C-alpha cells in the first residue's frame, strides 16, 4: 500500500503546478505517476486514456463554467487496462457542482481514495454524460474519502464504494507498473 504522506499542498512552493483551463492535462500514452502536484482547470481538465496514479495532489477546479468536470477518462472497453487513481489528494476550487468524472467514452475507470472533497463537489459525484446506458459500463469508485460531500448516500447508483480488497490495486505503485520504470530513491553516503 502507498503510505499516507503528510498533506502539504497549498503552502508548498515545491509542488509541481499544472495550470490550464479546459483539457489542462492530456494523460495519454503509457503509465504516469504524479506526486505532490497542483492541477488546475475547469472542464475535462484531466483527459484521455492511459494509466495514472496521482498521489498527494491537489485538484483545483477554477471559475464557474456551465459544467465543471475533473476527469474525462477515455477507456472504451473494460478489457483495456487503463484508468486514473487519485490517492491522498484534495479537491478544492471556486467552481460549484463539480463532477469528479464524466463518461466521455463508454468504459472510463477512475477511483478516488483517501481524498478530501470540499463542498464544491456535486452531491451525485459523477456524470454518465447524459448517456444512461454508460451507467452499466463505467467504473467509478471511491474509497475512504472525506468531506461533507463524500457521502455514499447521495452518489449516483453506478458509483462503487470500494471494499479494502477492491481498493488495494488502485493504492499501490504497481497500478502504474512503477517497479518497472520508477527509479528507486537515491542512497546517501555518510
Automatic annotation (TrEMBL):
Every Pectinesterase catalytic domain range: 17-178
Domain of life according to the entry: Eukaryota
GO MF term list: pectinesterase activity
EC number: 3.1.1.11
SUPFAM superfamilies: Pectin lyase-like (SSF51126)
InterPro entries the UniProt entry points to: Pectin_lyas_fold, Pectin_lyase_fold/virulence, Pectinesterase_cat
Biological processes annotated in GO: cell wall modification; pectin catabolic process
Swiss-Prot/TrEMBL keywords: Aspartyl esterase, Hydrolase
Pfam families membership: Pectinesterase
Pathway(s) of this molecule: Glycan metabolism; pectin degradation; 2-dehydro-3-deoxy-D-gluconate from pectin: step 1/5
Family membership: Belongs to the pectinesterase family.
Protein name: pectinesterase
Organism: Gossypium australe
